[in-house]
Amino acid sequence: MGNLLAYSGIVTKIHAMESRLLKPEQFEEIASLKNVPELVSYLMDHSSYRQVLQDMDESRLHRGNIEKVLNLSLYHDYTKLYRFCGLKQRQFLKMYLKRYEIDLINYCLRIVINHYQEPFDLNHKKPFFDKYSQISIEKLITSRTTDQLIEMLKGTEYYEPLRKLNNGRDVTLFDYDLALNLYYFTTMWRERKKVLKKKELEIFTRDCGSKIDLLNIQWIYRAKKHFSMSASDIYSLLIPIHYRVSTDQIKSMAEAGTLEEFWEVFQKTTYARHYDFNQSLTIEQMYEDCLYHLYTADRRRNPYSIASINTYLFLKEEELKKLTTAMECIRYGLTPGETLGYVGGRIQ
Length: 348
Fold this sequence. Notes:
This protein has helices at 2-18, 24-31, 36-46, 50-53, 63-84, 87-96, 98-114, 126-132, 137-140, 146-152, 159-163, 173-195, 198-226, 231-237, 247-254, 259-266, 270-274, 283-301, 306-331, 336-344. It is mostly helical and 348 residues long. Helix 1 (2-18) packs parallel to helix 19 and helix 12 (173-195) packs antiparallel against helix 13 (198-226). The relative contact order is 0.12. The mean pLDDT is 89.
């Protein structure tokens, strides 16, 4: 009864918000559009993105600006959820916010490392981060080097993990990205027990643990397929947490001599046994499909719990990824079939 009372308002709000997410048939319509302005017009007329697109200047209708504006809708949805949440749910959302903070830091690192001439276009994010985050965009945009950027993070939890990298050697963007990812997942894994209790802890442990397992599998596959990395180098990429994939299975995948051997080991994991993966899918889509089934199943079984919030934010983030992919395909003149293939992660 306690959870029903605590979540009744937020669950009703989530149902209303989810009803406005794009349907599969709408992505089919989007795939048939001829150019980016047509996509903007479609979203204005047929989606919740009208709220963030309606004031956009027509002269700024290009991919980069549109993507930034669309991402604002994620922050708007986070804000709506936060307002409806009680203290317990807000603690979870504050923990969840770390992924948005890390995305912001990674963006800033790319700017200073690549010496972009017009570096920081973050005004659209500033109100959100000023209200909810420990990170000051106002400080970050004054940075011109990685050392300066890291100093501007002093007083936040991200300062120490990044400062430790600056030990006199050359540090790449990949190194920073890896350090932030490892910090994020190990911190979430540790903090979940402080924020969540009993059933909600069990739900989030399953969701977070499965995500870590699947990411490790995905990173092993990419490292072997695209970079022919050695097993020792692959180990340095992985999150040091094992949930339902054993240490021996990770070792066997990392040390597999061929991709065929990798797949043989993967087929023995719990994820391959419990989900019917179609082999025409990319490894990225397998990851997303598995999480989709996991999150939605958790929500069906436990609607009045943290699973409702976690699932909605996942669905929203996935929709934005698909929209960004569709926009890029439309921009390059791909056929509707090709666009749907990329949006769905299917290999052509």
